[in-house]
Write a structure and sequence with these properties.
The complex is a heterodimer of chains A (about 260) and B (about 325). Chain A has about 260 residues and is an alpha/beta fold. Chain A is built from ten helices and ten strands. Chain A has a single domain, classed as Rossmann fold (3-Layer(aba) Sandwich), CATH 3.40.50.300. The radius of gyration of chain A is 19 Å and the shape is globular. Classes of the chains: A alpha/beta (about 260), B mainly alpha (about 325). The interface between A and B is large, with 43 and 31 residues. Chain B: One of its GO terms (molecular function) is branched-chain amino acid transmembrane transporter activity.
Chain lengths: ~260, ~325
């Protein structure tokens, strides 16, 4: 539980003079749910973009395992075991659920021209494994009856599930979830919360960015609070609920976690 | 696998039937139309890899077509290298040019990519027109060797048509295998959403470069076949009109499908010939038909009719199973055919 899986070292992002993220340091421990919260414009999504390689930091670096990473392409971050979902679900509308999830298996797929053109035994075996892995995820995420459904026919919650399944298909060590409950009803939020706990049980570390205070307080092992791009607090949900700066900057009162 | 096997069988049968049928066509005019249509179909398939599967616009594809044709022309006429070796070199060189064009342009999108590829086509045409010592300038290159395949002289239209149908079928099969593989999935992903491709570990630029290279090679292949069939090439065949015409063919037929560009080629070839009866009104009618199709069937003719057929069958299925709770799996393998 206390083993460090990623270290964030003095990460800053500057957009033409404005510091969207400023000097953030934190450790991410193995198999924890780390909540990241903050008011609108606090820099949460920019921070997630840095972790997933979509945004290059102006300063600072990450340490994943033994590797120090200051500037890295997003596909390399995926190879290092980071996968993510988005605040606005990003799925491929022309594909069905199974094919969308299979996209996540790209890194493990057989891509040699010879194997592809002659459909060698190795290729067929690998594809079979990928499809079976995707089908297992479909079952775990309770999407079995939607397997061949087009994305446009799914509800918002189902789309979120498909996106999470696609992220899990990359077999990540760290899963970054950007407001997975945005636009969902309380019941659906409950379902997604159970799902996040299930993912944690499978040994995946989760970094959860969420506006729903009740949810983030109940799910997270630790919470980091950002405000105006800076880290203002870090601790367990109980510590955060009592933290003066957090109450002042974000909550506007005490939290019944 | 069943679907793939069905595809293999259909392609093999079609190839054999077309190749045999081609031997019995007596009308030389018809033979010529078919051969040129088959070459255009190969060119359309190459554009489709970029436009249809990868979502990259190409307005300079006549450039690759010209490079393929001129490589064969120059090497065969000036250096007396055999046609088949020239063809191999032409395909490799066009692929290399695709890679070189792709290197600076893979980071461009939309109009900017369109302008860059357009520039490529214009540059190639400019070189073909002005590098007199090598390309012969506007006079072009004549007396290119007509290929002979295992003692079969392809200078006879019937044999050439049989050969080109076999090439087209093989190409369709190769493209099908590619798009139904992880490479096709990656292309489809970066076409629909690059950000998704990034976070799922797809090296976006590498896959775009691959598409440019393969597409360039296939267009070069079409060019080398054109040179072998016509035995005379000149720069006016490889101008901007050709690039626009080929992308129109793909969009009209239905980009992002294999059957779409083939159907588009067949329809436009037929339309072009049929409209010859209308003399000066030919281009006006041609333009009106194209605009009408693009406006009313923007997804392309093949996807439009495919969706119609699917909806008719799914309605019938529902009508015959009024109590079923199972919904049709319309999404299965919907992309890439």
């Amino acid at each position: 539980m206390n083993e460090q899986i990623m270290k964030v070292n003095n990460i800053s992002v500057n957009f033409g003079g404005l510091w969207a993220v400023k000097s953030i340091d934190m450790d991410v421990k193995k198999n924890e749910i780390l909540g990241v919260m903050g008011p609108n414009g606090a820099g949460k999504s920019t921070f997630l973009n840095v972790l997933s390689g979509l945004q290059q930091p102006s300063e600072g670096y990450l340490v994943i395992g033994t590797q120090k990473i200051s500037q890295s392409k997003p596909w390399n971050m995926a190879k290092l075991g980071l996968s993510r979902s988005f605040q606005t679900v990003r799925l491929l509308p022309e594909l069905n659920v199974l094919d969308n999830i299979l996209i996540g298996g790209h890194m493990d797929a057989e891509k040699q021209a010879w194997d592809i053109l002659f459909r060698t035994k190795k290729y067929r075996q690998r594809e079979k494994e990928l499809i079976s892995r995707a089908e297992n995820l479909i079952e775990t995420l309770e999407l079995k009856d939607k397997k061949y459904e087009k994305i446009s026919k799914l509800s918002t919650e189902e789309r979120r599930r498909v996106e999470i399944a696609r992220s899990l298909m990359t077999q990540p060590n760290i899963l970054l979830l950007d407001e997975p409950c945005a636009g969902l009803s309380p019941q659906e939020t409950e379902e997604i919360s159970k799902l996040i706990l299930k993912i944690k049980e499978q040994g995946v570390t989760v970094i959860l960015v969420e506006h729903n205070v009740k949810m983030i307080m109940s799910l997270s092992d630790r919470i980091v609070v950002l405000d105006h791009g800076q880290k203002i607090a870090e601790g367990t949900p109980d510590e955060i609920a009592k933290h003066e700066d957090v109450i002042k900057a974000y909550l506007g009162g005490s939290v019944n976690a | 696998m069943t679907k793939t096997r069905l595809f293999y069988t259909a392609i093999t049968i079609l190839c054999i039937v077309c190749s045999i049928a081609s031997l019995y066509i007596q009308n030389l005019y018809l033979l010529r139309v078919f051969i040129l249509a088959a070459i255009t179909a190969i060119l359309a398939l190459s554009v489709n890899i970029l436009v249809g599967y990868t979502g990259q616009i190409s307005l300079g594809h006549a450039g690759f077509f010209g490079i393929g044709a001129y490589m064969v022309g120059i090497l065969n006429v000036n250096y007396h290298i055999s046609f088949w070796l020239c063809m191999v070199i032409a395909v490799l060189f066009s692929g290399l040019m695709g890679l070189i064009l792709g290197l600076p342009t893979t980071k461009l999108k939309g109009h900017f990519l369109g302008i860059a590829t357009l520039g490529f086509g214009v540059i190639v045409n400019g070189v073909l027109n002005n590098w007199m010592q090598v390309t012969g300038g506007p006079q072009g290159i004549r007396d290119i060797e007509s290929p002979t395949l295992f003692t079969i002289p392809l200078e006879y239209g019937n044999f050439f048509l049989g050969f080109i149908v076999a090439c087209l079928s093989l190409l369709v099969l190769v493209i099908y295998l590619l798009i139904k593989s992880p490479i096709g999935r990656a292309w489809s992903c970066l076409k629909q959403d690059e950000i998704t491709a990034y976070v799922t570990g797809i090296h976006v630029y590498r896959y775009k470069l691959l598409a440019f290279t393969i597409s360039g090679s296939i267009a070069g292949f079409a060019g080398s076949l054109f040179a072998g069939y016509m035995t005379f090439i000149s720069p006016d065949t490889f101008d901007l009109n050709q690039s626009i015409s080929i992308i129109t063919t793909v969009i009209l037929g239905g980009s992002g499908t294999i059957a779409g560009p083939l159907l588009g080629t067949a329809l436009l070839a037929f339309l072009n010939e049929w409209l010859r009866n209308f003399d000066e009104l030919r281009l006006v009618i041609y333009g009106i038909i194209l605009v009408a199709v693009i406006v009313f069937i923007p997804e392309g003719i093949y996807p439009f009719f495919k969706n119609k057929v699917i909806s008719i069958f799914s309605k019938r299925k529902k009508a015959s199973q009024p109590n079923t709770s199972i919904e049709p799996h319309a999404g299965k393998d919907a992309v890439n055919e």
